[in-house]
């Protein structure tokens, strides 16, 4: 089954530097660098945050707690689960499985098991970059939702 048939995949956003706060006082913002420094499966927020202005002007899409966050470059292939609502930087894809088809916890492990293959296919250019199209078109096999939930617990 193609991944885009049961997920919603969203790109991150890179605002101008004047709207990025070098602290956690604004809206939580996760970058590929933050993902690369995480020590667990879950990430709460990044080292920097976004100002009210950039969120309002750009009508940014808030990523909900529980979404899967995948770095697409620098480095590609790091996966985490958002432990709180946040916004994501350029170089990250948010992946939200349809809960009637795919258990998010189970899909985290499916992605992890296939990550080497995804990254290898993304290595065609000068540097590794996993695109939304490559991920969307990748095929995986899913057992029934009931079985997914049993396996992920």
Features:
153 residues, alpha+beta, 5-stranded mixed β-sheet, 4-stranded mixed β-sheet
β-sheet strand percentage: 15-25%
Q: State the distance separating the first and last CA atoms.
A: 23 Å
What is the mean pLDDT? 91
Assign a percent range to the helix content: 25-40%
Order of strands, widest sheet: 1-9-6-7-4
Number of helices: 5
Model regions low in confidence, pLDDT < 50 over at least 5 residues: none
CA gyration radius, whole angstroms? 15 Å
Judged by helices, strands and strand pairing, the structural class is alpha+beta
The global form is: globular
Number of strands: 9
Helix/strand order: EEEHEEHEEEEHHH
Major sheet characteristics: 5 strands, mixed
Summarize it.
By secondary structure, the chain is an alpha+beta fold.
Structure description:
The chain has 153 residues and is an alpha+beta fold. The chain contains five helices and nine strands, in the order E-E-E-H-E-E-H-E-E-E-E-H-H-H. The strands form two sheets. The chain has a five-stranded mixed sheet with strand order 1-9-6-7-4. Helix 3 crosses helix 5 (145-152). The longest helix is centred in the C-terminal third of the chain and has 18 residues, at 104-121. The chain is globular and about 45 Å long. The model has no long low-confidence stretch (mean pLDDT 91).
């Amino acid at each position: 089954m193609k991944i885009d048939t049961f997920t919603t995949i969203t790109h991150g956003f890179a605002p101008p530097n004047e709207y990025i706060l070098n602290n956690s006082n604004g809206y939580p913002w996760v970058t590929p660098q933050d993902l690369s420094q995480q020590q667990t499966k879950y990430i709460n927020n990044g080292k920097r945050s976004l100002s009210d202005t950039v969120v309002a002007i750009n009508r940014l899409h808030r990523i909900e707690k529980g979404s899967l966050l995948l770095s697409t470059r620098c480095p590609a292939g790091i996966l985490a689960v958002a432990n709180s609502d946040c916004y994501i930087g350029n170089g990250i894809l948010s992946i939200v499985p349809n809960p009637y088809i795919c258990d998010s916890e189970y899909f985290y492990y499916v992605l992890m098991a296939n990550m080497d293959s995804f990254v290898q296919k993304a290595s065609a250019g000068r540097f590794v970059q996993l695109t939304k199209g490559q991920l969307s078109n990748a095929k995986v096999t899913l057992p029934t939702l009931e079985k997914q939930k049993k396996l992920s617990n």
